[in-house]
Every structure is written in structure tokens, then in C-alpha cells.
């Protein structure tokens, strides 16, 4: 296959568009399917000719043998063509699916993080796997099958009209009614397919949540049945199927009955014509054999159209991904070569209707440590995300090195930013592979140097296979503090001049806290650091502290200046100190209890 034909599909697609993408292979698959289907009628023609020969006053047995040989040969050709069609259809379908998946993966990499908010990870996983798999049904099965299903009645009708036009017309009599019944059935099904699809989505999301939260579920002695949302979703699906079966059963019986009803007309009419002497016996037998097969492929077509309604939902979800605009990139990219200060000028940002930043202006000087402090939800993480263009500011400017982040080539911008956030994501793969995410060409020595500086080398060495130890899902098997130190090692390896840090020592023990703090001190040296601080004492010596309050800057300066002039900082400091006293007192009580005999 040509390389060009494997180019990723990055734009929204229609079903026909998809079929055209695989036109070459799928076209041949359809052509062979049509031929194969048409040939399925051929043996009946030869049987008919054989019957005529046998009913002749002096049957020619050699002619009968010749006709039988033809019938067998065409039957064999039919099966061979069917196999070829099957192989080609799957080959074409998988190529198109592959291009779609690569296209979607690429687009997900280009869209802002806001795209993912409100769409569960389960939802996107389903779109990339199940929804794309669903399209296989259209490309590899429905396309050749539906075309072949249409070919069978046409070939059969041609055969019947060639034999006797009166009976052929009679065998078509139930067709108009059957088509009306089919139309009504499909319209009803289309209305309900969206409900079905919603139910499927709810079940998938709930199963995902149940599995992720299994520890909590077990800890409270619950099971799947008592997991209310999940059992509600499953009950909803069962109810839907019962309702649908009840509402549509009469329509289906009528429809399938009409499809085979032509025999009720053809059999007596043919017998009457035969008695009248205008229809010979072989032709009559031919109609008894072939007439019921003329309309039945419509049933297959109807099933196929029903499945197609579900696939339309799948394609809509795929197009939702492909149709999301990528982050804009500058037409003529330039890269500033001076100091990399971070500037926020009157920046506003909202998540949906919630205002997170409300006209923030501040500067984080190159080579300095700037701390962001504020109560929970005051907008600290949002500021950091805007620097890395994980989200786009609604208005105002976020500048790096004097240039708006939207004017930076995204790759160049991200190459200059190291990120250590609270939630550390580690992928399936070895410790070394997780570290090399930051710099794929790093040597083993560089890897170890970064791990040493991040105070991670010792615990990595103690793992069963050292740097080659495979990490489970999301780094399972490592403590929170260890994951943090791996993430710091990753940032050290990247060696980016700007560092976005979410100080994350709040939930780790004292030993880990001290190690992480040492690792962070090493990491911050000589870089432009924007650090989100939860413990004010860790940033008391920062070059500049910015106090955020409800999405606004409530004060900025050094620790002692803020303590003197900024009421919001004074409040934070008071709360921080009293929480610290409380935890020291609690520690003291625990120590005393442990020391007691
Ligand atoms: N992805 C999101 N979708 C919707 N709202 C969000 C999202 N992320 C943050 N918010 C909201 O925006 C506001 C600012 O959040 P942000 O995470 O920036 O605050 P923060 O100061 O970093 O909080 P914390 O210290 O608790 O991490 C909050 O009201 C928060 O609920």
C-alpha cells in the first residue's frame, strides 16, 4: 500500500467520505461482493435449464452434465469471490480505522486542555477504541454486504423476468407495503437509538468509576449492586430493551411476514397458469424456489441500517474530536532570545461560567523564584496552566520573554518549560522510560545524575530491577513522595529554563518532605520559577510572593513587606501558623503517648 494512503485523517468525516478514503481496496471488495452475490442466483438458472432438459421428450444427458458442471463451477467461483471480498474489505477497513485513530490522537495532542474538561477519560477512551471499532462494521461488512444484498434481488428479478414476466410482477406485489413498514420501523428506531447510546455511555462511565473506586467500595463493604448509579444505569438499559421489544414486535412481524408473502400469491397464481397451459412446470418450480428469496435480502438490509444508526452516533463522537479547533500557531514563528520573564497583563479566565482569574497583572522575573500563594480556589493553578497554554486566557496577555504565548511556536514554548504538578502521572513502562519522557536521548549516566539530584536514586536502586523496574498503572507501587521525586528528576532531566511548580509536600511524611524540599532547591537553581505554595514557610525566602484572592492579585512583594502591608497575606500567615501549631501540638501528644509505658 502506498504511504500517502496512510496519512492520518484529521478532519471530520462522513460515512461516504470514509468509504472514499479506502476507495481503492473497498471498491474491489464491493465489486467482488456484488459478483459473488449475483452468482448465488446462477445455480438456480442452471437447475431451471436442467429441469427443462429432463422434462423434454428426449432428455440430452450430456447437456444435463454440462449444465451441472457449470452450476458447480459458478458456485465455487462465488465462494472464492466471497473470500476475496472479505479479505479486501477488512484490509481497507483497518487502513481507514488506523488513519482515523492516528488523526484523533494527533488532534487530542493539539487541542487545549479545556476540551477534556467535562468529557470523562472513559468517554474519550470509548471514542478512540469502541467508536472507531464500530466503523469496521460499516466499512468491512455493511458496505459490501448492503451492496451485495441489493444485488441479489436485482439478479433474481432479472432471472424471473427472463423466465415469466407475469409471475415475476406478482412476486413483487408485497414490496411497496414492505417498504412502507420498513420506513416506519427505521424512523422509530432512529428516535430511540440516541437513548440507547446514552445508556451505554452511562454504564461505561459508571463501570469505570466503580473500578477506579474499588478500594472505597470494598472498605465500606459495598458491591456493584449497591453502587447506586451503576445499577440504575444497568436497570435503565434492561428497561429500554424491554420497551423497545414490546413497541416494535408487531411492526417486525408484519415486515418479515410481508417479505416472504409473495409465495402466497405466486404459488396459486402459478398453479392456475399451469392448469391454463400458459406456464410449463420447470418455470413454475423455478418461481417456487426463487420468488421467496427476492425480497428477503431486504431484511438483512434493514438490520444493517439499524446498526448504521448506532454507527452514526459513533461517527458523531469521532467528529466531535476531529472538529475541535487545534491551538492556533503563529504563521511566522519567531522565538525571543533574551531573558525569559513571565508577564501577565490584565488576564481573565473562566471555566464555563466560573470566573477563575479576574484581571490579573504580575511579573515573574527571569532567574528568580516567584511564589503564588492564596486560599484554595483563588486561581493559582490556573495561572500556571495559562503559561504552558494548557488553557487559553479569555482576555489579556500571558507573555514569556516579552512575547504572547499564542505567538510562540507551541513546541518551542513547551521545550522551555518544566512542569512539576501535584498529581504526578507515571505511565506503564520502566522507571527509566518514565524519566526519558523528558529527554528521550538522555544517557544512563544523565538519568542517574538527575535521579540523584532529585533524591530519587536510592529508592530506585532499591526497586527489584532498579531503573528497569516496570511501573504499574499511574505509577502504582510507589509512594506519593517517591512519585513526586521521580517527577522532579524528570524536570531536572529536561533542564528547561522556566519551571512551573506546584509545591506538593502537604500530603507526605516528614522524611519525604525534607527530601522533596532538597530536590526542589536543586531544581530551582538558576531558573525562572513560578511556584504554587501551600505552606507559606517554604516560600518565605522567595524573591517575590504574589497573593491571590478570588482570582485577583491582593498583594505582592517580599515576605516581610506583605506581612506588614497586605491584609490577605496576614490572614494566610495567621491561618498557616495556627495550623502548624496545631499539628506540632498533635505530634507532641503522639510522641508523649508513644513514650508512655
Ligand atoms: N477544570 C476546571 N473546570 C472547572 N472549574 C475549575 C477547573 N479548574 C479550576 N476550576 C475552578 O477555578 C477556580 C480556580 O481554581 P485553581 O485550581 O486555579 O485554584 P487554586 O488556587 O490552584 O486552588 P488549590 O489551591 O485548591 O489547588 C476554582 O473555583 C476552581 O473550582
From TrEMBL:
GO terms for molecular function: ABC-type transporter activity; ATP binding; ATP hydrolysis activity. Residues 28-310 form the ABC transmembrane type-1 domain. PANTHER family: ATP-BINDING CASSETTE SUB-FAMILY B, ATP-BINDING CASSETTE SUB-FAMILY B MEMBER 6. The chain crosses the membrane at residues 26-48, 68-89, 142-161, 167-185, 252-275, 281-301. InterPro entries: AAA+_ATPase, ABC1_TM_dom, ABC1_TM_sf, ABC_transporter-like_ATP-bd, ABC_transporter-like_CS, P-loop_NTPase, Type_1_exporter. Its main location: membrane. This is ATP-binding cassette, subfamily B. It is found in: Cell membrane. The lineage of its organism: Bacteria, Pseudomonadati, Pseudomonadota, Betaproteobacteria, Burkholderiales. It is a multi-pass membrane protein. SMART domains: AAA. One of its GO terms (biological process) is lipid transport.
Amino acid at each position: 500500500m502506498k504511504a500517502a494512503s496512510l496519512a492520518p485523517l484529521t478532519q471530520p468525516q462522513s460515512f461516504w467520505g470514509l468509504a472514499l478514503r479506502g476507495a481503492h481496496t473497498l471498491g474491489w471488495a464491493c465489486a467482488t461482493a456484488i459478483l459473488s452475490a449475483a452468482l448465488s442466483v446462477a445455480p438456480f438458472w442452471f437447475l431451471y435449464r436442467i429441469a427443462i432438459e429432463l422434462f423434454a421428450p428426449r432428455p440430452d444427458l450430456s447437456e444435463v452434465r454440462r449444465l451441472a458442471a457449470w452450476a458447480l463451477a459458478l458456485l465455487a467461483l462465488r465462494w472464492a469471490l466471497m473470500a476475496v471480498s472479505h479479505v479486501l474489505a477488512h484490509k481497507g477497513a483497518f487502513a481507514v480505522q488506523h488513519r482515523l485513530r492516528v488523526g484523533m490522537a494527533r488532534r487530542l495532542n493539539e487541542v487545549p486542555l479545556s476540551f477534556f474538561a467535562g468529557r470523562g477519560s472513559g468517554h474519550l477512551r470509548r471514542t478512540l477504541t469502541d467508536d472507531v471499532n464500530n466503523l469496521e462494521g460499516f466499512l468491512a461488512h455493511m458496505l459490501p454486504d448492503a451492496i451485495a444484498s441489493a444485488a441479489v434481488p436485482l439478479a433474481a428479478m432479472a432471472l424471473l423476468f427472463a423466465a415469466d414476466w407475469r409471475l415475476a410482477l406478482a412476486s413483487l406485489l408485497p414490496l411497496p407495503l414492505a417498504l412502507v413498514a420498513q420506513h416506519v420501523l427505521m424512523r422509530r428506531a432512529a428516535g430511540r437509538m440516541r437513548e440507547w447510546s446514552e445508556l451505554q455511555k452511562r454504564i461505561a462511565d459508571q463501570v469505570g468509576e466503580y473500578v477506579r473506586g474499588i478500594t472505597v467500595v470494598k472498605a465500606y463493604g459495598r458491591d456493584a449492586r449497591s453502587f447506586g448509579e451503576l445499577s440504575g444505569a444497568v436497570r435503565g438499559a434492561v428497561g429500554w430493551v424491554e420497551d423497545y421489544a414490546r413497541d416494535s414486535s408487531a411492526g417486525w412481524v408484519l415486515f418479515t411476514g410481508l417479505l416472504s408473502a409473495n409465495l402466497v400469491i405466486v404459488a396459486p397464481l402459478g398453479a392456475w397458469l399451469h392448469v391454463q397451459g400458459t406456464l410449463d412446470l420447470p418455470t413454475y418450480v423455478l418461481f417456487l424456489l426463487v420468488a421467496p428469496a427476492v425480497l428477503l435480502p431486504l431484511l438483512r438490509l434493514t438490520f444493517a441500517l439499524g446498526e448504521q444508526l448506532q454507527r452514526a452516533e459513533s461517527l458523531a463522537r469521532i467528529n466531535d474530536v476531529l472538529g475541535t479547533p487545534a491551538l492556533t500557531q503563529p504563521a511566522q514563528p519567531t522565538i525571543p532570545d533574551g531573558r525569559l520573564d513571565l508577564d501577565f497583563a490584565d488576564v481573565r479566565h473562566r471555566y464555563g461560567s466560573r470566573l477563575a482569574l479576574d484581571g490579573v497583572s504580575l511579573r515573574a522575573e527571569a532567574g528568580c523564584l516567584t511564589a503564588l500563594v492564596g486560599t484554595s480556589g483563588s486561581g493559582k493553578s490556573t495561572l500556571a496552566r495559562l503559561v504552558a497554554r494548557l488553557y487559553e486566557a479569555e482576555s489579556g496577555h500571558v507573555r514569556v520573554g516579552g512575547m504572547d504565548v499564542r505567538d510562540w511556536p507551541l513546541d518551542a514554548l513547551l521545550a522551555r518549560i518544566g512542569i512539576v504538578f501535584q498529581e504526578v502521572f507515571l505511565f506503564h513502562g520502566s522507571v527509566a522510560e518514565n524519566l526519558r519522557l523528558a529527554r528521550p536521548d538522555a544517557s544512563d549516566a544523565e538519568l542517574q545524575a538527575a535521579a540523584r539530584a532529585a533524591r530519587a536514586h536510592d529508592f530506585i536502586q532499591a526497586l527489584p530491577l532498579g531503573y528497569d523496574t516496570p511501573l504499574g498503572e499511574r505509577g502504582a507501587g510507589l509512594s506519593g513522595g517517591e512519585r513526586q521525586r521521580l517527577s522532579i528528576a524528570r524536570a531536572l532531566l529536561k533542564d528547561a529554563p522556566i519551571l512551573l511548580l506546584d509545591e506538593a509536600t502537604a500530603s507526605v511524611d516528614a522524611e519525604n518532605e525534607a527530601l522533596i524540599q532538597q530536590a526542589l532547591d536543586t531544581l530551582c537553581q538558576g531558573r525562572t520559577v513560578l511556584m504554587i505554595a501551600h505552606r507559606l514557610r517554604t516560600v518565605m525566602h522567595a524573591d517575590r510572593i504574589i497573593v491571590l484572592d478570588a482570582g485577583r492579585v491582593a498583594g505582592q512583594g517580599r515576605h516581610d513587606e506583605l506581612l506588614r502591608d497586605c491584609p490577605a497575606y496576614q490572614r494566610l500567615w495567621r491561618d498557616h501558623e495556627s495550623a502548624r501549631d496545631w499539628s506540632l501540638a498533635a505530634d507532641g501528644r503522639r510522641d508523649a503517648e508513644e513514650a508512655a509505658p
